[in-house]
Amino acid sequence: MSKLRIATTSLAGCFGCHMSFLDMDEQLLELLKDVEFNRSPLTDIKQVGPCDIGLIEGGVCNADNVHVLREFRKQCRILIAVGACAINGGVPAMRNHYTLTECLEESYLYNPGLDQPLMPNDPELPLLLDKVHPIHDIVQVDYFLPGCPPTPEAFLQVLGAILQGREPSLPQALIHYD
Amino acid sequence: MTDTAPNLRRIAIDPVTRVEGHGKITLLQDEQLQIREARFHIVEFRGFEKFIQGRPFREVPFFVQRLCGICPVSHQLAAAKAVDQLVGVDTLTPTALKLRRLLHFGQILQSHALHFFHLSSPDFLFGFGSDVAKRNIVGVLEQYPELGMKGVKLRKYGQQIIAAISGKRVHGMATIPGGMNKPLTEDERRQLLAGIEDAIGWCVDAVALNEHIHTTHAAHRSFATLRSNFLGMTGCRGELEFYHGGLRACSADRTTLFDQLDYRNYNDVLREEVRPWSYMKFPFLRDLGRDIGWYRVGPLARINLCDFIPTPLAEDARLRFRAFAGGDYLHDTLAYHWARMIEALHCAESIRELLQDTEITGTELAAGHGTLRNEGIGVIEAPRGTLFHHYRIDDDGLISQANLIVSTTSNNQAMNESIRAVASSHLDGNELTEGLLNHLEVAVRAYDPCLSCATHALGKMPLQLELLAADGSVTQRLYRHADGSYERLSA
Ligand code: SF4
Fold first, then answer.
1. What is the pTM of this model?
2. Contact (CB<8Å) B272/A117
3. What's the pLDDT at B426?
4. Cα(B324)–Cα(A29) distance, rounded to whole angstroms?
């Protein structure tokens, strides 16, 4: 059996989902017998290549995120939304209650301790989206792995099922949180 | 490209990998292959300081830890310290204080282990310009399984401490206003204690490895190195301290700028500069001013600044570090790793001490609340450096203002200086290869920037090239537009 090729990325996420993936600890070694990593924050591969599975942490908050997400969709046979942020925007989507201008002004004009309040206004600044979006607003998603973050067991079960060609399905205990 | 623009080639390292979060490096190289500009950018904006407004203060520690999944505990604790002040609690119960300290030692231990073993060790084991396919933790586990597994297990141990106290490894709930949520059971204490000797042993080995790497590679001393001011917290006796103490700042030549400063007065000594071309703020020491007031924080700063470490093995390691530095501070950027492992050892030793303390399983966890106050400031030494959380609430207990200075922001100027140093020492005059470009990332990784944290209010740094006349005045200004074209603007 050839190894499953996995790519991972963090969009508007906190990296906690990636941490939880690493929290499989020694079982990571077992997993490495069956999978290999393509683009991921843990490798130095910067461009995603053809993959079996793409794990996406975080929602979509700027044009870069949209671009990376579309690349992942193009290259990955199975795309998985990992964690609350990818599934519904999560904590970063709390900014959706305010306008982007209000958020920017708070940080650069009103914050205490500023040397000289000043609004960054360069044409190079990233194209921020008005709202933070869940990833299924942009691309088709094959599976949703809930949690903030999902547990290492949940990752293992989903990957295990795909490895064996089964439909992933998680028991209640693994999708029940806090 | 506009027809007035010179022939500069833009090269981007995007994303910067084996760091936590989202960042990129951009370079401008001219026709003679000289690097004309090198910049390190944070590529997201979150707007936390705004959207937290109007929320009840009790929620804050749990929102704010979701800025960063690598050091969520540090954010939770810095916020909790601010919340303690909001509810009028100045002194925690002894057990609550010990549990918080234990939790934070677990956090620093797991983060430091992750940082060295999972993210940075491939550069040192395989070489900065080695095969990109192998230069990662999987490569380490294949070729150096024993060493790689030590890293995996050390990180696991730190995570187990966190899980025992907060219920989950990532984003648990440990704190309550003025105290802690749940006691540590005797069973949990015993289980954790059973693993501590191994953990201390792995840390001793990690210190030895890093000491060896740094002291036997002459080239490492000058790599990305700069002289800087340092800022950090120390305990009341001048000892290394992560949870609570006063602020100390010293200049590059070891002159004390201030010491034991109450961190609630941080606004008197720190300022943040906004530059028109960047979302990323640049903090500096107010008395020294914008130009020379930038400073470094984190393991290198803390080990340089502290007078001693209150656990024996880590103190021995610190003395060797000090001896190597001679009469000076150790300014070597790559010595961050060595300092980081000394701190990991101190965490492991401190965890043993706390787990052997009978008070750790006490059940008095909450102090009675005083009168509600309108302002709270919590500061902590997070794995990457001094972390400031500052909140104001209205009379209904809703957040009206928030200010965060995350550790990585304090190292912003230093990271940029370091990649410029590497660009001129290693890249100038060369056709840029993947391996050469990784040298820039090696410099950034030394700081262990937590770009997840840093995005809370930061955005992508744009590219601006300034040509200066001999008197330092700007003669030309070049912008790169979002579509990649360049434009020359009058100064
Ligand atoms: S789901 Fe939770 S752990 Fe995952 S990126 Fe979002 S905040 Fe972090």
1. 0.90
2. no
3. 84
4. 37
